[in-house]
Amino acid sequence: METSAKLYSLSFSNVKTYLFAFLFVAGNIALPQLCHLAPMGGPTLLSIYFFTLIAAYKFGFRVGLLTALLSPVVNHLLFGMPAVAALPVLLVKSGLLAGAAALAARYTKKVSLIALLGVILTYQALGTAFEWALCGNFFVAVQDFRIGVPGMLIQWFGGYALLKAISKL
Prior knowledge:
Distance between the termini: 19 Å
Largest sheet: 2 strands, antiparallel
Oligomer: single chain
CATH class: Mainly Alpha
CATH architecture: Orthogonal Bundle
Number of domains: 1
Number of helices: 9
Strand order of the largest sheet: 1-2
Mean pLDDT: 96
């Protein structure tokens, strides 16, 4: 399934870049707070990545990168989650997600389930390799693949639905 969409690549000199990033960071703050109400909600639902995916796919790498970097840091400063030890991995995975989503949108020029699946698998595989290199423990590194599959499915289908809903904006 695919849909044509208006996709953007906003520059750092455009005030819209910062306004959209602010909105997506706010989403990446609110959604994890809701998800953390459920036991293991954060690691299972991977909610801190959701609006980074939307931001980068719809508005380009710069909005996605600002969202990717600010969301974990602001969440940590406000709520102590994620823990300091988890920040490097989250920042890398979020940055990889922003890059993969912006690249997929740029080349496909449409919202498609296949493109989104490729984005999710790319950032997770590369992020897992980084985490394994950082911590030296394969079992810890593959946590998202062990318990985060529901979150990846939400990113895939929920991201598609939201991108499709805002595709003409």
